[in-house]
Every structure is written in C-alpha cells, then in structure tokens.
Amino acid sequence: MIHNLAQGVQAFTSNVFLVEGNRTVLVDTGANFDVVDAIQSRVDGLDAVVLTHTHRDHVGNVAAVTDAFDVDVWGYDDTIDAVDHAIEDGATLTLGDDEYTALHTPGHKDDHLCFYAADAGILFAGDLVFQNGSFGRTDLPEGDRQTLIESIDRVLESIDTSLAEMHTGHGPSVTSEPYDHVELAGQMARRA
C-alpha cells in the first residue's frame, strides 16, 4: 500500500510516500508540514527512510522523522548530512512488499535516484519526470539538461509498457499508461 502523505498539503514540500508492507519505508520526507503526525496516523513505526535526492523540499523533515522513529536514512551520497547509508546504483532494496532496483539518475541533482519494482510495475521517479511529459528542473546547482535526458533514457530502458504506477516528487501519481508519460518527458526534454 502506497500513500502520499503530502497530498493536499499547502506548503513548499515534495510528495512523501509511505510504503506499507513487510518493510515500511518512507520515500522522501517532504518539508514544512507535520509529516510525523501523518505517519503516526497510519502506522506504528518505520523501518527506513529512502531519499530520491537531497533538495530541501524532499529532506526538510528528515530530522523530525529520524527523531520520532529512530530510523536510518538511505540515499545515493552518504557524505551528505541527511544520509546515513549509501544506496549504490543497481542495488536492490525492499520497499513495502516489493523488491526495487535503485537507478542513479542525475541531471536534476547529482545524487538523484529512481526506484523501480519490475514485478509490481511501480516506479518512484523523484524529480526526474512528472505527469504529462514534464521533467525535472536543470537550472539549479548540479542540474544539467543532457545528463537529465540520459537519465530519462536509462529509465526507459529499465521499465516497459507494463508499468502500472509512477509516483513522482511533485504533482499527482500516474496510474494510466505511465510509460507514455516517461517517454513523453524524454521527448520534451530534448525539445526544450
């Protein structure tokens, strides 16, 4: 079960996904709202926090979450203060009840990761791509359009048209033909 705890929140925040199951994991912590209360209203505890990347709208609540639940934070670059453990490109990790592959996808930020569960057909896309062909900003520090395009291409090579759900860092999740939205984002990034 995947819940977006930031849905309806009126604040500068990313989406925050609570993935329930054998290993209850929070994907990104968001910022500027009481995510601890939102977590506690659904589950008794967390097994881990996993970050798509460390822009402040995605990690602003890290300290509150780690204090409340005594959990470690996993991300691509463990030299960054918010990250306790590194996730290597291609590593396999359990989120909820499913096995996900971590894909290093820089271009929006150097430490950006996407998480893909082939068997379940689920992609956590972070700020790489969004619905309707939108894609992550490349005008911030560490942003690079060509690198972003290469990362989108890498995700397209990893997923297929059976993709059932795409959960993005901002905006609504995509459950209707999400593969097409990723493909369109690749096309739009080349045009922009």
How does this structure look, described?
With 192 residues, the protein is of the alpha/beta class. It has one domain: 4-Layer Sandwich (Metallo-beta-lactamase, Chain A), CATH 3.60.15.10. Helices cover 24% and strands 22% of the residues. The protein contains five helices and eleven strands. α4 packs antiparallel against α5.
Offer a concise description of the structure.
With 192 residues, the protein is α/β, with parallel strands linked by helices.
Task: Summarize the topology.
Blueprint: E1 2-4, E2 17-19, E3 25-27, H1 35-40, E4 48-50, H2 56-59, H3 62-69, E5 73-75, E6 85-86, E7 92-95, E8 98-104, E9 113-117, E10 122-126, H4 145-158, E11 165-168, H5 178-191
Parallel strand pairs: 3-4, 4-5, 5-6, 10-11
Antiparallel strand pairs: 1-2, 2-3, 7-8, 8-9, 9-10
User: Using only CA atoms, what is the Rg?
Assistant: 15 Å
Write down the CATH class. Alpha Beta
**Beta fraction of the residues?**
15-25%
Rough shape?
Answer: globular
Low-confidence stretches: none
Quick one: how many beta strands? 11
Number of domains: 1
Q: In which order are the strands of the major sheet placed?
A: 1-2-3-4-5-6
**Biggest sheet: strands, sense, closure?**
6 strands, mixed
Q: Give me the strand/helix succession.
A: EEEHEHHEEEEEEHEH
* CATH level 3 topology: Metallo-beta-lactamase, Chain A
Number of discrete helical segments: 5
Helix content: 10-25%
- Averaged pLDDT: 97
The CATH architecture can be given as: 4-Layer Sandwich
Under CATH, the homologous superfamily reads Ribonuclease Z/Hydroxyacylglutathione hydrolase-like
Question: Could you give the distance between the termini?
Answer: 36 Å
